[in-house]
Amino acid sequence: MPGDGIGPEITEQAVNVLKAVVEGSDLELSFTDGLIGGAAFDAEGQPFPEITRQQANEADAVLLGAVGSPQYDELDRPLRPERGLLAIRKELGLFANLRPAMLYSALADASSLKPEVVSGLDILIVRELTGGVYFGQPRGIREVDGQREGFNTMHYNEGEIERIGRVAFEAAQKRGKRLCSVDKANVLETSELWREVMNRLAAEYPDVELSHMYVDNAAMQLVRAPKQFDVIVTENLFGDILSDQASMLSGSIGMLPSASLNEKGQGLYEPSHGSAPDIAGQGVANPMATILSAAMLLRYSFGRGDLAERIENACVAVLDQGLRTPDIMQAGMRQVSTAEIGEAVVNAL
Amino acid sequence: MPGDGIGPEITEQAVNVLKAVVEGSDLELSFTDGLIGGAAFDAEGQPFPEITRQQANEADAVLLGAVGSPQYDELDRPLRPERGLLAIRKELGLFANLRPAMLYSALADASSLKPEVVSGLDILIVRELTGGVYFGQPRGIREVDGQREGFNTMHYNEGEIERIGRVAFEAAQKRGKRLCSVDKANVLETSELWREVMNRLAAEYPDVELSHMYVDNAAMQLVRAPKQFDVIVTENLFGDILSDQASMLSGSIGMLPSASLNEKGQGLYEPSHGSAPDIAGQGVANPMATILSAAMLLRYSFGRGDLAERIENACVAVLDQGLRTPDIMQAGMRQVSTAEIGEAVVNAL
Ligand SMILES: CC(C)[C@H](C(=O)O)[C@@H](O)C(=O)O
Ligand SMILES: CC(C)[C@H](C(=O)O)[C@@H](O)C(=O)O
């Protein structure tokens, strides 16, 4: 589902890479194009049309470009591109959003932080994606005593907290074995329950060291000393904010993939960056984040960590060759197009 | 109200500075000591006892140290120190929290960000402080279908948004005339109304340039290019996160004051940092943020910008003398105690 803005050009490269990596392997992939976001609105009058819903449900995995463009800003909210993204998350029950924030050593200079603060940065943020204030009911704008008021409900039950907790503990087991659960338990009851469930789960994962941090402090620590973190788990809204903050620490958000998984192993894979309508169609967008999302797709929806690693290694090799799209261009490197990066990754494979 | 941890030692210095600056001026201040947080719990069994409530209401301004200490972590939530802070905000109707995030040129190296990204940083965050999910009803933990669930309500009415909006527009008029309103209007109805009211207000402040930004993007932009901001206005929870993130950009949160104002000009003034129980009582805490909060107290609750500036200049002079508490110590500077900083500021006055 290419979506809007730079979506089509970056997914095109990622699909080429997927085709190349499975060629000659024992995995066969069959591809279907789907419409989502503004592109779907243009064609079908809806950001998440029925046909897309069916395709999504039938697929093992969805590779998504990005949604959103200023031309849709005046639409009624339910018709806007972002609603397509929220709808597919809810439809597929994609409760677990995995967002690595890491610094590629070839791009160490790109960060706005001092090199010693971020060199070797490698954090995984596990964001709950189908609960919290994003989907809580009741919600709306109503009139009370002659005055309008907006209201939303933040909401989590034990089951929802437990299942994202398990994903995070298991991810931590495979990494540095440290899990930091971020909440606002000094103010919110929702967070009180969140913290209680995380503490209960900790007993089942004795090899993982669990800590808790308030969200305001987490936002500070991500600036002050981000390398203190291994895996962070948090609820939907906090995860939205912190995962974007964390991805910007690397200075090269054009390199960062994401995966959103459900309980059946289906997943949606998309770059961490947005649709960048200002540079769409010019062939200058960085397809790396989408290519790396395709790697996550192979790892999580097809159990093919081996093929995923081949793609990841190929991306590093292309960086080492000095090829750069404009967003990560540095002196002494060679500036190339979106398609040239894609081709270089295929060649490196 | 000294509060907990380092609170007593830092407020002591700020009170000395206040006494020194009004001496010989036409302003007379009378001081009363009040209990809040853990200190109040120890003495009265409550983090915000009735006597404190009365003192707060009678005062023109409250100078607060900090609340919180691990020894209170096992108390029932309503008895914990932070609840004292939430209670005084609500009791006095302190809806407007002003939090400057700035970099003192003498401390430019302290930041974890590259010098060119933060040098000259000077942002004002205007955070709504008595609404949103902090105080919204209904809230709690309940059992539904044999499963517990936590829920909170995010809530703003037009009047609440308008009054914080006016504070922010007026602050922007006195500064760089650029106001960025941060929300999550692509997901939350509360934010939809927020954005609508900000747009409506903009017509009354034609000299201020209003922009809008989603909270996730704001968290990114504060890392990427924080100097793009002049004044930021946002709701309570987003303000909690972003103001802490922004204050950490300077690397010297021990220097950053805050003011929380109501509609009657009463205010509560406190450092942006916490109670740092690990270093309490050792005479090593940095009292500058509290001293600078006392300056804000003179400016906002007593209309004495002149006296405020004298304190602010004295603080800069002390930095220029090379005096530093350990938190901001650098090679070539002289490390001094909490009290020595206070005395140096008094002398500089
Ligand atoms: C577009 C928006 C609804 C979405 C979100 O807030 O979840 C985006 O910011 C993200 O993080 O994927
Ligand atoms: C202590 C806590 C309740 C408080 C808040 O969240 O408002 C603090 O973080 C702050 O920002 O003053």
TrEMBL record, chains A, B:
Which residues does this entry assign to the site Important for catalysis? Y134, K184
Q: What does the cofactor section's free text say about binding?
A: Binds 1 Mg(2+) or Mn(2+) ion per subunit.
* Gene3D superfamilies referenced in this protein's UniProt entry, alphabetically: Isopropylmalate Dehydrogenase
Q: Where in the cell is it found?
A: Cytoplasm
Task: Give the top-rank taxon of the lineage listed in the UniProt record for this protein.
Answer: Bacteria
GO-annotated biological processes:
L-leucine biosynthetic process
Q: Which GO terms describe its cellular component?
A: cytosol
Q: Which family does it belong to?
A: Belongs to the isocitrate and isopropylmalate dehydrogenases family. LeuB type 1 subfamily.
The name this protein carries in UniProt is 3-isopropylmalate dehydrogenase
Q: Which organism is it from?
A: Guyparkeria halophila
Q: Which gene encodes it?
A: leuB
